[in-house]
GMP/IMP nucleotidase
Amino acid sequence: MPSLPWSDIDTVLLDMDGTLLDLHFDNHFWLEHLPQRYAELHGVSRAMAEQELQPLFERNAGQLQWYCLDFWSAELKLSVRELKLETAHLIALRPDADTFLDAIKRAGKRVVLITNAHRDSLSLKLERIQLAPYFERLISSHDYGFPKENPQFWDALQADIHFDPSRSLFIDDTLPILRSARDFGVAHLLAVRQPDSRKGPRDTAEFAAVEDYRDLIAGL
Ligand SMILES: [Mg+2]
């Protein structure tokens, strides 16, 4: 991982799930817990549950409603909020994410969380992990009506927080989102090597990736 030119960076934009928090919670929830509980609550087999959920997941991936608990609760006829609480003990920081946050805040960088997570998912996580004090703003893309994948998200962010993309760093574990940020002109971009602690390292295509947050604060 290349070292960052910190003197050229005054704003740090950070994704939450898979970047600061272990993606294991979300992967486990959507791929294991939800199908299992869907099967139980609707009295169908686990295989049938998977068969019913799969096309819904495929149809809605990358759309804002994908991240909307109300959408899924209505679509699946169950309370996604309550089911998430059943697995909330799996919500965890990625290694040294707090060390990184502490260091950039101390260095006087402007730090803003930008997430596609629904406000409800965001609160569920912030109740368990003390992330809020590190940030000047906690922005859910639902506030703007466009997911981070959409160029209009970046226009709305610019109008809201007035940041200089040429002096900003953005870290996100989703490659299409990094590409969308790059198209907007965000100069410093990093992916995440291992967003889910239970899965192996990932190929991050054209993007350099955070391997270890402690390396990132060198030179700060
Ligand atoms: Mg993410």
Notes: The chain has a mean pLDDT of 95. The domain at 6-22+92-216 is CATH 3.40.50.1000 (Rossmann fold).
